[in-house]
């Protein structure tokens, strides 16, 4: 499920007869629950809106969903190998890494 760029995963608790959700693209812990898809959507929106309001009350910037940038540390020999692979493919190192990650997710 998604709301305002935030993403959540849902699990079903058969014993309780409830779906539990958690926002996964934040360091903060935001959870919600419901018994139907409609309730889950409403509960997710409510949790995000509460989080945004809480941050505003405290004068803090809410944590944003991922920016699209991250640092990868690799052994020098691997760095050299992927740099060479990118050059052979005729793309930047960044583009090669993104293309490779996208392929691995398919």
UniProtKB/TrEMBL annotation:
Q: Which Gene3D superfamilies match?
A: 3.30.160.250, Met repressor-like
Q: Which GO terms describe its biological process?
A: regulation of DNA-templated transcription
A Pfam family assignment: HicB
> What is this protein called in UniProt?
Toxin-antitoxin system HicB family antitoxin
């Amino acid at each position: 499920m998604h709301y305002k760029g935030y993403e959540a995963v849902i699990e079903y608790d058969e014993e309780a007869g409830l779906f539990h959700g958690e926002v996964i693209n934040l360091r903060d812990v935001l959870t919600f629950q419901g018994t139907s898809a409609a309730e889950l959507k409403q509960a997710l929106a409510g949790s995000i809106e509460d989080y945004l309001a809480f941050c505003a009350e405290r004068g803090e910037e809410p944590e944003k969903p991922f920016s699209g940038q991250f640092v990868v540390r690799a052994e020098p020999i691997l760095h050299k190998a992927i740099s060479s692979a990118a050059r052979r493919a005729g793309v930047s190192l960044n583009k090669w890494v993104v293309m490779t990650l996208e392929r691995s997710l398919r």
